[in-house]
Amino acid sequence: MDIVVKPMDPSDEVTADQAYQVVEAVIAADVPDFPPVGRRRFFAELAHPWPGNAHELAVGFVDGEAAGYLAVHLPQLDNLENAEIDLSVHPAHRRRGVGRALHEHAVSVVRGLGRKRMNTMAIETLPGGVARDPAGGVFAEAMGFKNALTDVRRRLDVTAVDDKALDESLAAAYQRAAGYSLVQWNGATPEEYIDDIAYLDGRLLADAPMGDLEWEPEKVDAVKVRAIDAVAAARGRRRYHTGVRHDESGRVVAWTLIDFPGTVDWHAFQQITIVDPAHRGHRLGMLVKVENLRYTRAHEPALRSIDTWNAGVNDHMISINEAMGFRAIDGWGNWQLSL
Prior knowledge:
Organism: Phytohabitans rumicis
InterPro entries: Acyl_CoA_acyltransferase, Bact_Acetyltransf, GNAT_dom
GO molecular function, one term: acyltransferase activity, transferring groups other than amino-acyl groups
Protein name: GNAT family N-acetyltransferase
Shape: globular
Structural class: alpha+beta
Largest sheet: 12 strands, mixed
Pfam families: Acetyltransf_1 (PF00583)
Oligomer: single chain
CATH superfamily of the largest domain: Gcn5-related N-acetyltransferase (GNAT)
Number of domains: 2
CATH topology of the largest domain: Aminopeptidase
Distance between the termini: 29 Å
Order of helices and strands: EHHEEEHEHEHEHHEEEHEHE
Number of strands: 12
CATH architecture of the largest domain: 3-Layer(aba) Sandwich
Strand order of the largest sheet: 1-2-3-4-5-12-6-11-10-9-8-7
């Protein structure tokens, strides 16, 4: 058996299609309740990387057949000592050395760039939850990674939402939110809000529980927000935003986002939710999330499922999500390796 790892040029459509087939097979096997990635989304993400990021790509072959895919993501504006690793091995080729070969290639790339840490994620089974193959975490540990933080994925069944309970939660939130006004948009961030959104986005990793994960808060300004919006549009993503503006200052001080990757119309991701620390205690987190769910459902009638992730210790946000109807599905370990 001959295992060869070859760097991949994103413009090489033949090799990229082989990589896509690997990724699609991995998602179907490991996270079967996810929608397919879709060829359009996969190629759009290759063509349009997120602003402030570069990547090195490779495909692992067994006797000439594509068996694994590696993406090494390299932050360019912050976290310059870190690299994020997405390593996928086709289910038909597992436990044959492909993962180790791709890992060794990743280590060589990251070390060659002078970076000191590699981060990756692996799915795991929660107590009483859906059974997941533990092989990813076992492999990460065997390669020397340590689990620095476990996130929990929760899913909202939109078809079973208790609208009466949401109405009551929203009414209670508005009772605490005097002096604040709702703002909503889809697509690109309006210029009048862009500096506030940049500030809130940049705060996210400073405020969120990070466990033992060594990862700096990201540098976000108006230029980067515009660039993110442009890349999202180029990728075909549909994004729905709700914010709360503080009437006295005119600033947007709370914000949340639901994101459709563009593959299917029935599934979306609940992304960032953040409230400026100076404006906490007014139930603004609950307010923006419930209002944004309503806003999204009005525009996306086929929506059935929304997934979100929170650190397992983020009790406040978990309590909001569970009050809305999100329920735990599986765990996602954030594994980190110091080189």
